[in-house]
Amino acid sequence: MAQMLIDTANHIAGYAAKAARVKVVAAYPITPQTTVVEKIAEFVESGEMDAEYIRVESEHSAMVACIAAAAAGVRTFTATSAHGLALMHEALHWASGSRLPVVMAVVNRAMGAPWNIWPDFSDSLSQRDTGWIQFYCADNQEVFDTIIQAYRICEDEHVFLPAMVCLEGFILSHTYMPVKIPDQSEIDAFLPPYKSGWTLDVNNPISHANLVSPEWYMEFRYMIQEAMENAKMLIPKIDEEYAKRFGFQYGGLVEKYMCEDADLILFTMGTMGSEAKIAVDNLRKEGHKIGAARIRVYRPFPIEEVINLSRQAQMLVTIDRHISFGMEGFLATEIKASILNQKDRPMVAGFIAGLGGRDVTYKTIEKIAKKALKYMRSGRVEKETEWVDLRE
Amino acid sequence: MPLTPLSIPTVGSMGKTGSWRTFRPKIDHSKCTRCALCWIYCPDAAISRQDDDTPVIDYDYCKGCGICANECPVKAITMYREEE
Predict the structure, then answer these.
(1) pLDDT tens digit string along A193-251?
(2) Which among A167, A188, A317, A375 counts the fewest CB atoms within 10 Å?
(3) B82 with B23: CB under 8 angstroms?
(4) Over the stretch B24-68, which tens digit does the pLDDT of each residue have?
């Protein structure tokens, strides 16, 4: 029997690790992630979860322990936030380069200095180029579903890459919402046991990720790029299969809301996507043809879907809970790059909002949309990057 | 191609790495207690044990890191410059 729970996204992430029959969890606590691994510790202690729980001295060690366990052929999970993720940086490359499908919950938190424990995407987006698949969730149910799906995707023989399942601190991590946990036998039917691409075996010793000379290094990099492209094809299929089995669907790579006839499309990530839907409803009542597109998978980036969305619209708006200092938000850069070679492409206006946990409500998004509508009508983007609600 | 570079251990696939050495460890067998700590710590597995646990250094592969000399509890291993 499926189980209905009302719980926080962090606890739900723990339930997902249990439901995925993860065999090794290596973790180090950090706010706002801590209650993810606390929940898993409870499950392991009570015997509800048959896993090795390794307490390590740092996030770097947590990642390396997960890599080693995955190399030994078992399913692994960890979770972290902000500075913990930054400390893992070097090891993240080892996971993807070794083609080990570690799955990690990243509870998004702003980077210091100054210290801040509230959400923005500067932690996970700083890890953009590490070869990890990145999912961004909008509610607690999606956190559960995405962790389960992530294992299917990452462990696919055409992918074999690690994934981060990102969720915003506090907005989701510590907020109680109803979540449906499917029956274990149904999850087992969707997610078979992990079959590794290669495995360490004491009876048949090998060493891995060895020194590779310039004659071969590029080829190994190209294989990761191909694996990302394969993941891009696979994710929408898994989303559909999951919907058929469990009733929850998220649009695959991009969750689109009223985009078919939209002149203006609001691009967001994470929980801002839910707020954007309310903003669209309100602005449509006022007669504006607006749609919302939530980038659910940031790596691989859904270039083709962005191009399709750009055909009808005159104006694309990006709302970044992140800033690449000296440039703009990543989403702005990537949306522009995606459509650059299209004829009669729409304009793009970038907005920076919600850094360090400042609220981005539907009202904020309506204000952004109205400004962008003005740009659309005048045919000129007055400001390439605008910081929303900035105190001056 | 394999997913990631994998190799089966073979002797000397990188050549005789002992040529990288600038310091050479030398064991004073009259001081050695056959505790085998040098054998445990050697990161290149370049120390082997004879039947009576007497350690023997394989200078074809010892890179001269000096860990054995550092770990030896009775100071039976001394590092000498190669040219000495």
Answers:
(1) 999 999 999 999 988 888 899 999 999 999 999 999 999 999 999 999 999 999 999 99
(2) A188
(3) yes
(4) 999 999 999 999 999 999 998 999 999 999 999 999 999 999 999
Residue ranges in chain A whose pLDDT is less than 50: none
Residues of A with CB under 8 A from a CB of B: 97-99, 160, 197-198, 205-212, 216, 219-220, 223
Secondary structure (H, E, C), A295-362: ECEEECCCHHHHHHHHHHCCEEEEEECCCCCCCCCHHHHHHHHHHCCCCCCCEEEEEECCHHHCCCCH
* Structure tokens belonging to residue A50: 């048959």
Contact B25, B69 (CB under 8 A): yes
How far apart CA A94 and CA A25 sit, in angstroms, is 18
DSSP at A178: E
> Cβ-count burial of A2 within 10 angstroms (0-12 exposed, 13-18 middle, 19+ buried)?
exposed
Question: Rounded CA gap, A231 and A168, in Å?
Answer: 23
Percent helix, strand and coil across chain A, each to the nearest 5: 45, 20, 40
Instruction: Compute the half-sphere exposure of residue B44: CA atoms within 13 Å on the CB side of its CA.
Output: 22
**pLDDT at B9 > cutoff 80:** no
Residue B3 has its nearest CB partner, among A160, A206, A216, at A160
Contact B1 A206 (CB under 8 A): no
**Cβ count within 10 A of residue A254:** 21
